[in-house]
Amino acid sequence: MAIYIFKRLVLMIPTLFFILLINFCIVQIAPGGPVEQRIQQIEQGQFGVLGNNENGTTSPAQYYQGARGLSPEIIEKIKAQYGFDQPAYVRFWQMLKAYSHFDFGESFFKGKKVSELLWEKMPVTLSLGGWSSLLIYALAIYLGIQKAKRKGTIFDQTTSLFLAMSYAVPMLVFGILLIVFFAGGSYFQWFPLQGLVSENFAQLSVFGKIKDYFWHLALPLLTMVLGGLASLSGLTKYSFIEEMHKQYVIAARAKGLTENRVWTGHIFKNAILVLVASLPETLIGVFFAGTLFVEILFNLDGLGLLGFEAVSQRDYPVIFGLLFVCTLTGMLLRLCGDVLYLWLDPRLHFHSIGDNS
Asked: Collapsing DSSP states into helix, strand and coil, what is residue 222?
């Protein structure tokens, strides 16, 4: 197992390199970068300051030439401020050296280090992703088992219709409907519209803090659960149905084992392997895709909203820092899922997987 894990960890290095390289190349040809945005701000009268010279702070106003635009000197200062005075390959190499010890640089527009921003926004994303993943798996396993046991009944058909609607309707639409009906849109104002906690959170009791926390999470979690429940429930159902008709299950029933013993001792531990295999992809989808829309929709200050703002502002250090962290986390989740799957299923061997990969 140690050799297999070591190989997977080593393979992450070139994967991260090429992902960063491809995105870095795309950024170089994308219009509207930080330099262009800063020039536009100055031309619109938002001068501000640019670094320091021997006399103190330098203002772009003294280099602005009206209809002729900015002088070459101030344009070079703007490029130097954002690091674009160096060739692209030099900037990429500097970024790789900094990332090797997890130094993601400083945000162009927020005045903080990227690592500090990621650390500040992470609790919101972890709250959303962690609770929603737990609820999705718990409900999907229970619902999938019940649908497998009652295949063809009214319960199965009704829940299948509900899950089909849940799968067809985008998560964003679910969130908007919940806001309209339950967050003061047009009907009821039962839940808050934004934020993870109330303004008076620090003054609340322990029970009050827990209540306030889940009160704010109710609609975002419901949005994510409705959006991610359908596919996992269907996968659970058909996984259990497939195991129910295998020979070892028929033999267990023939030995006189109770139905409960057959399900808990035989069917469940084999059918659940499919869900374990899908765990990394589910977590990646929930944390890196689902939370993005939910954080924007409910104005939750997490990594998803941070990434959206960074893309809008062309805040390259934040974009690449998020890309690096999300990619590395995704690969580690896949590795953990594979190791867990191999640990649960003794029929598989690490050396055979290594030969086939």
From this structure: helix
**Which of 328, 324, 311 shows the shortest CA–CA distance to 98?**
324
Name the β-bridge partners of 183. Answer: 189
- E strands in the chain: 52-53, 56-57
Q: Do residues 317 and 37 touch, judged by C-beta distance below 8 A? A: no
For 121, 186, 235, 277, 341, the CA distances from 273, given in Å and listed in that order, are: 33, 45, 11, 6, 7
pLDDT in tens, 225-254: 887 788 888 888 888 888 887 888 888 778
Q: pTM of this prediction?
A: 0.74
Q: Which of 147, 163, 157 is nearest to 271 (CA)?
A: 147
Distance CA 131, CA 220 (A): 10
Three-class DSSP category at 345? coil
Residue pair 204/215 in contact by the 8 Å Cβ criterion: no
Between CA 128 and CA 139 the distance in angstroms is 16
**Cα 315 to Cα 107: distance, rounded to the nearest angstrom:** 6
Model confidence over 19-57: pLDDT tens digits? Answer: 989 988 887 777 767 777 676 666 665 555 455 444 444
Cβ atoms of 123 and 130 within 8 Å: the answer is: no
Nearby residues of 278 by Cβ (< 8 Å), 6 or more positions away: 232, 235
Farthest CA pair distance, the chain = 92
| Nearest CA-CA partner of 335 in 2, 9, 51, 39 | 9
- Report the alpha-carbon distance of residue 240 to residue 273 in Å, rounded: 10
Element (H, E) at 279: helix 268-285
At 275-298, the pLDDT tens digits run 777 777 777 777 777 777 788 888
Q: What is the pLDDT of residues 138-197, one digit of tens each?
A: 888 888 888 888 888 898 888 888 888 888 878 888 888 888 888 776 677 788 777 777
